[in-house]
Amino acid sequence: MNYRHAFHAGNHADALKHALLVRLARAMQRKEGGFLFVDTHAGRGRYDLEMAGVGDSRARQPEWPSGIGRLWEAKAAPAEVAEYVALVRAFDRRCGNLGAAPRFYPGSPRIAGALARPQDRLELWERHPADAAALAAEFRRERRVSVHAADGYGALRACLPPRERRALVLVDPPYESPQEWSSVTAALEEGLRRLPSATLAAWYPLTDRAGAEGLLASARGLRAPSLAVELVIDPAAQGMRGSGMLVVNPPWKFAGEAESVARYLASELPVAREAISSVRWIVSE
Length: 285
Ligand SMILES: C[S@@+](CC[C@H](N)C(=O)[O-])C[C@H]1O[C@@H](n2cnc3c(N)ncnc32)[C@H](O)[C@@H]1O
What we know:
48% of the residues are buried.
């Protein structure tokens, strides 16, 4: 396990993933009843962006300036993105940053935790021992949050169906090995088997087209509607051109909100001249 999210925290992919996560959590909260948020690959929960340029053995180019850094001062963000930026700002301040630039960035557990109501619960899974320990410390005082230092693919079996009968699951692996794509597909299948109404969101990189296309092709075989939201920030890039989120059982109105998020991020985050956003039904409602 070489992947460390700290180097990537707050980049364009986090901006897409986390702005969509805010919309998904808010959609789950349209109903009064509580829901379970499951994060299969949760990370540390909080990132110090000043450390993002310090590599294990070499200096790295921090990635957040071309992600949250560009959104920080943006005035005309649509409401669907503004809530995400406001949440990051509030977190950054609460962690003690007094500077003008962002310093502390919330990972997906902290984003879901900030939105959670008393009736909502969080189950967070992280396999890297140091990150799992940091995550456990982050949430040690919060009773409705459970942290598991274990393989996140076990979360589907362990957590679903939840007593609330409503769940939002984020599957956000590092894609270090080519097998990760089939593990994600298997996780979606298992999630639906255990709770057919679950909303399952799987993040994926747009590097190897075959990987993403394979994932979307397998979504066609699931007995549930699904939507793919993609943001290509650098169409000509050799490496990662952008990223996407496959959302199975997207909540009511989510497609329109995702459209607004992706379109705005494409206007703010291009690397070269143009960025491309798309929202397409893989299996329609
Ligand atoms: C992309 S990061 C997660 C970022 C986090 N979801 C967020 O949005 O803030 C992927 C994380 O998965 C962890 N990881 C890798 N393989 C895992 C596994 N099998 N089970 C649980 N966590 C794993 C890595 O250590 C890393 O922290």
